[in-house]
Amino acid sequence: MRCVYDIVSVGGIATDLILRSPKFPSPGTCVTATELRHGLGGKGANQAVAAARLGGRVALVGRVGDDDAGRSALARLSAEGVAVDRVTRDRSVGTGAVVIHRNDAEEKQAVVFPGANARLQPEGIDAAALLLASARVVLVQLEIPLATVERVLETVRAGNAQLILDVSPVRALPPAMIRAAAVIKANAAEATAVSGIRVRDVASARAAAARLLELGARLVAIEAGPEGNLFASASEEVFLPLYDIAAVDATGAGDTLVGAFAVAMVEGQTLREAARFACAAAALATRQLGAQTAMPTRAELEAWLAARQ
Description:
By secondary structure, the protein is of the alpha/beta class. 36% of the residues lie in helices and 26% in strands. β12 (228-233) and β13 (237-241) form a beta hairpin. The longest helix is centred in the C-terminal third of the chain and has 15 residues, at 253-267. The model has no long low-confidence stretch (mean pLDDT 94).
């Protein structure tokens, strides 16, 4: 019997190297790091792991190199309960990688090597069409070629799945892509780029959401700067201030929000319930350095929320 996965994530897989130092080096200088972490990242992998830890039945579609980094990534994803049968291996280029450098002022710099992610072609989506057709929610981000993202949208449109489009890393998007998504997720900078309205607070986030709804989006989730998160449809709005938590590193928090929101959609939670669930998961994901390090389990999240009722 073919196993059905409620959630399918299509997107980037990468190895992360995370450094912390008191300050960034200027050109030609060297600084000493005070902390070093190796991790698994890439937005497709992050969102898949976030959903799996919260109880989702999750599969991942992506591409890694035929190298030690790729084999390690697949093993770690499998250990998280993410199905990787549709993750292909590329013999001509290595697995994607990201070097993230944070300083004590909580600023961040990153260098990205796309690697095999840039070689996930539309044909790879065609090979996974039955998997996508069986899903209830499909997640896609922009770390893979835009033509491949478009093929995901076409495939999902022909089935019954709801699509969450995370417009990161930001790039110009055709209006048809916005119309195809059930949910558009963006941080403030991304919402600014895709809506044309500068997002800096709740009021401007509302204006950007209204613009995206005019363009055909059905639900918009925007990180409204330091004030909180806005979820808006044509008929309903939920705004949640940021949770008070001692954040260490926000890397992966947005991906955790997407994965959690997908689980909530599968479970049929109301918009307010889903928003609270997703925002709390994202807050907990900031507790440690690294994208996946602090992503919560379902038990952790429910206990944390229960303590705040």
